[in-house]
Amino acid sequence: MENSRIIGGRLALVLIVAAGAAGCASDKVKQEGPEAGAPRTHVDSRDPWEEWNRGVQSFNDGLDDYFMKPVAKGYQWATPKFVDKGVTNFFSNVDDVSVIANDLLQFKLLQTGQDLGRFLVNSTIGMAGFIDVADKLDLPKHYEDFDQTLATWGVPSGPYLVLPVIGPGSPRGVVGFAGDTAANPINYITPASIPWGAGAGRFVDVRADMLSATKIADEASVDRYEFIRNAYFQQRNYLIHDGNPPLGEDFGGGEGVEMEFELQGIEDRANEAIEKEKAKPVSP
């Protein structure tokens, strides 16, 4: 149960930095780090495609500022809190199909039973997952994906890779994303407009849930790109090791310990901001 809380917190952090990439366009000059063409004093061996990645992150930032953030704000304004929560729960329940499959592929048999029970309870008593009944029955949410499965099989992640719209990742993560997409039962519903519409709705829902916390990544580091990269690798490491990564793991070019404390403090503020936003009364 405790590991699930830890991993959930790490996911909150990575969603902040990946879904929003945080910050207004006017703030980006001071956040982008080294100027274009300037020599870099430190090259991260995990990021040989840094020039490409920075360009794509800049594109994603602009897309978020001028499209996703306004759409998410409109969704949040128009959607009652209980409906918003229900939509989030529904997509989380759909995700449990992939979680169960990856439980089996990683030979986590006890967790497979827990997640199968969670899915059955929420799909029936929880009205297709809109109500998270399983959490009240001590069936916690787990986070397993095909990228983690490949990691447990010994497949290396490969270099850091930022993709348009999708955000931070790696070559292994791209394969993992494809596998999880194939495991999503919604994607087999016809006509094709239903899966596409569901995917767009989920993306907006996630972005709206992160609105209250997106400014935190801007406060995290002078070079936001490096912070997001390090946060991504640390989050994946936590997931792969079920919240208990090896001690002394290096997350950022020799800055592993400092990065851990920095992320923990930012994560705590992120979770506090999210909880405060959820506690606000619903506007009439």
From TrEMBL:
<dbReference type="InterPro" id="IPR007428">
    <property type="entry name" value="MlaA"/>
</dbReference>
<keyword id="KW-0732">Signal</keyword>
<keyword id="KW-0449">Lipoprotein</keyword>
<dbReference type="Pfam" id="PF04333">
    <property type="entry name" value="MlaA"/>
</dbReference>
<dbReference type="GO" id="GO:0120010">
    <property type="term" value="P:intermembrane phospholipid transfer"/>
</dbReference>
<dbReference type="GO" id="GO:0016020">
    <property type="term" value="C:membrane"/>
</dbReference>
<comment type="similarity">
    <text>Belongs to the MlaA family.</text>
</comment>
<protein>
    <submittedName>
        <fullName>Phospholipid-binding lipoprotein MlaA</fullName>
    </submittedName>
</protein>
